[in-house]
Amino acid sequence: MMCPAETPEGQACGLVKNLALMVYITVGSAAYPILEFLEEWGTENFEEISPSVIPQATKIFVNGMWVGVHRDPDMLVKTLRRLRRRVDVNTEVGVVRDIRLKELRIYTDYGRCSRPLFIVDNQRLLIKKRDIYALQQRVNAEEDGWHHLVAKGFIEYIDTEEEETTMISMTITRLRPDEAYSETYTHCEIHPSLILGVCASIIPFPDHNQSPRNTYQSAMGKQAMGIYVTNYQFRMDTLAYVLYYPQKPLVTTRAMEHLHFRQLPAGINAIVAISCYSGYNQEDSVIMNQSSIDRGFFRSLFFRSYRDEEKKMGTLVKEDFGRPDRASTMVRHNLSRAKLDDDGLAPPGTRVSGEDVIIGKTTPISQDEAQGQSSRYTRRDHSISLRHSETGMVDQVLLTTNADGLRFVKVRVRSVRIPQIGDKFSSRHGQKGTVGMTYTQEDMPWTIEGVTPDIIVNPHAIPSRMTIGQLIECIMGKVAAHMGKEGDATPFTDVTVDNISKALHKCGYQMRGFERMYNGHTGRPLTAMIFLGPTYYQRLKHMVDDKIHSRGRGPVQILTRQPAEGRSRDGGLRFGEMERDCMIAHGAANFLKERLFDQSDAYRVHVCETCGLIAIANLKKNSFECRGCKNKTDIVQVHIPYACKLLFQELMSMAIAPRMLTKGLKNAKGRK
């Protein structure tokens, strides 16, 4: 019922589940026809029986409600299932017989997971080849389709509880009457690959991968760029990533056809070599062909939409779109309004960068505020600017009105993203990596045929992760490219590596996909044979342009006076416990003080030398006083982090007095 591969990593692992491909959630049906049927077929109500009969009979439950008992449950279950297969009883109805507890549970409610299975009778499928042939020959898609198979009794829906009472064969070949255990089969899977969910169904040969890799790909497949909808040019989504030249994969699964992955693909068939080359593809980084990038390899578009609307601030007063007037408007001086038209919007085709205003809006200043400020300002600037770390071009502007007759606007900004060092890519087998270096075509290795790879992956990524599916995909992709047809990588089929290798050998290549290559820097042949072929790669939405962050100075938190956190707030980079421990181990005391104190939340307090408590200081008048011991002379200045000062004050609020012992501390009783 649930996909065995598709579940999140981390905290929600195993808790968030995804449905398998053919799973159907029941919509529910009336229980009344079932209750009538039970009454007609010998179900005894509590009024008709004595309590002594109940232990010998089978209890009947409908949607969890005990409705009576029955003395011949075998006959009742067979009749119910026969009627369900003839669609005289709703196909969603679940019939569960628990022999140990002597219970028959019938469900008609909504929200249950159920899935279709072929019905097996006497070790034979009820559906025959002639029925499948008739399906293939039909002219109209609506005529004699799926519902016809269900109505004929070839297929039935089994829910999670009823599945516990069935014996399901994975394939037709297991239905062998001559074997003893085969006599117990009641159903057969339509295809074993239907146990997978949508995201796991696009992985080629997932049955040849270590299971966590399929889980990783199920998550990364959602982050891959492609054409996410056909009308993306007319939509104003908050964020959108669109690949320039998506390709349908050379190696596909049968599920992809039904999921329309070929119509809206999310990746490119790249020529991938698995090799160590120059050392810049260590630790899950990859080397990419710069000449391929220049020709448009994995180039993409990034769209971000900004929106705003006018709001009423009273009966007559409202916000207005327009270019803010410096003479009458309190403006923010760090923003540039040069790109705005008179209507307050940046026109399509305008190139914009960080801190450029793209939607100009002003709000009136209330009379109460105006009295306390300079009288020349009547409005306040509430414009929306581009994010400070982004650049792009205004792609589309949508100006319309809402239900209240007030204007609202959406502005979409477009930017071109070219692959560069630091961008993230992944195969369909959970083998993710960032670009570590780009080389032009003349510096990349080449084969005897003159083929240069687009991507070079480190061979150390393969043995420990056991993603053999990627290697099989590569050699099958080589065969598919040479023969001009797609390769079938559907899981749980009879495709073997030997068969693919023989087909590759017939195409004139080495059986296992190895090729002789030459060093791009020296022109000499590489000592080792290199595994090379087409592999479907995905560009993920994690790009270095959206991650890069540095700060010399910037905003601090109000409470702790430490630097703010996060790239969007222009925050600082945390110098954590482990970094601190490294500096202590190095003995770099001055550097440690600079990071943790001078560049963070340096603060000074005045401390009484007599009692060690924080004293009151008025530096303008040069007067100091300790409220605790009335000392006005023996007071020293101490540098502490502001967070430490907050801690001391919090302790003081709990009647705990932290005392700072300075070098010349003098106690009132003469103790030092």
Which features would summarize this protein structure in a list?
single chain; 672 residues; alpha+beta; Hypothetical Protein Ta0175, Chain: A, domain 2; Dna-directed Rna Polymerase Ii 140kd Polypeptide, Chain: B, Domain 6; OB fold (Dihydrolipoamide Acetyltransferase, E2P); 5 domains; six-stranded mixed β-sheet; six-stranded mixed barrel; 19% helix; 25% strand; disordered C terminus
Class per helix and strand makeup: alpha+beta
Helix content: 10-25%
Number of strands: 36
Distance between the termini: 75 Å
Instruction: Name the CATH homologous superfamily of the largest domain.
Output: DNA-directed RNA polymerase, subunit 2, domain 6
CATH-defined fold name of the largest domain: Dna-directed Rna Polymerase Ii 140kd Polypeptide, Chain: B, Domain 6
Q: Kindly give the count of domains.
A: 5
Per CATH, the architecture of the largest domain is Beta Barrel
Give the helices and strands, then pairings.
Elements: E1 24-25, H1 32-40, E2 58-62, E3 65-70, H2 73-85, E4 94-98, E5 103-107, E6 113-121, E7 124-125, H3 129-137, H4 146-151, E8 155-159, H5 160-163, E9 168-169, E10 187-188, H6 211-220, E11 239-243, E12 251-252, H7 254-259, E13 268-274, E14 285-289, H8 290-294, E15 300-309, E16 320-321, E17 329-330, E18 351-353, E19 357-359, E20 361-364, H9 367-372, E21 379-381, E22 384-385, E23 391-401, E24 407-417, E25 424-427, E26 432-439, E27 446-447, E28 455-457, H10 468-483, E29 487-488, H11 497-506, E30 514-515, E31 517-518, E32 530-539, H12 544-547, H13 577-586, H14 589-598, E33 602-608, E34 616-618, E35 623-625, E36 635-641, H15 642-653
Helix pairs in contact: 10-11, 13-14
Protein name: DNA-directed RNA polymerase subunit beta
Family: Belongs to the RNA polymerase beta chain family.
Function: Essential for the completion of the three rounds of mitosis in female megaspores required for the development of mature gametophytes.
